Automatic annotation (TrEMBL):
Stretches assigned to the AB hydrolase-1 domain: 31-264
Record-level Gene Ontology MF annotations: hydrolase activity
Pfam annotation, one family: Abhydrolase_1
Domain of life of the organism encoding this protein: Bacteria
Protein name stated in the entry: Alpha/beta hydrolase
SUPFAM superfamilies, per database record: alpha/beta-Hydrolases
UniProt keyword list: Hydrolase
Amino acid sequence: MTVDVTRPWGLRDRVRTSTGEIAADVFGAGPPVVLVHGTPSWSYLWREIAAPLAEAHTVYLWDLPGYGDSSLADGASASIALHARTLAELVAYWELDAPALVGHDIGGGAVLRAHLIEKVPASSIAVLDAAVLSPWVTPVVQHMQRHLEVYRSMPSHVFGEIIAGHVRTATHLELPEPVRAAYLDRFAGRDGQQRWLDHVAHFSEDDTADVVGALGEIAVPTHVIWGEHDQWLPRRTATELAGAIPGARRTIIPGAGHFLTEDAPAEVAAVLAEWLGSPCPPRQ
């Protein structure tokens, strides 16, 4: 299947896992690559990346449990450890031997944890502005964690303004209103407010501590890609992370913030296509 970026975004399949019912989809044909989004996003983050990659690869997309159109199993928490376990189950469900794994933000942490801790084989790994090295829990999120009940009881329209301000700092360029709404609408109203805070409550650097300790064991080609103007995880983190992984490549995307696929989608797609060993077709 080809990626139709003109239709409203949404993944067509539903896969039952131990962590929840996962929205997923598969596009293109060729060597497999699995794209893993982070927070506070969903698979929509990859919409302009999946299409060019699908020209030469089979691209697997999914929404993390509790994000996008994926549900979270009763009693489960949306942690990096849970996302890594979900990725392991999906790779088995899709019957992939050693796909390329690509992760952004906490999705980067989940990819590395899936490979190192869950023992998911990979042909190569790329992590973009990845939540791995401490501290990756941002000051805004740390404040929310310390005062969860205050934020939970806050009027939803006030809370909405707070997270809108936070999301504005995710990009270097201003998001068009429809794009901004595609991210924020998932957290609108009282239910969305509680969903956001349920996620925040379970961001823990404990989930990446053992990953960091095992970075030197990575034996597959690894690429660390970062936005030049990331306000959430500064670019020096890219240097530190690449330095901890044997033979890792590092690329800085000019003019891009933390959501680098929004600021510079063509550049990111080209870097990933080259890394995955295929030319990136020009944007139409």
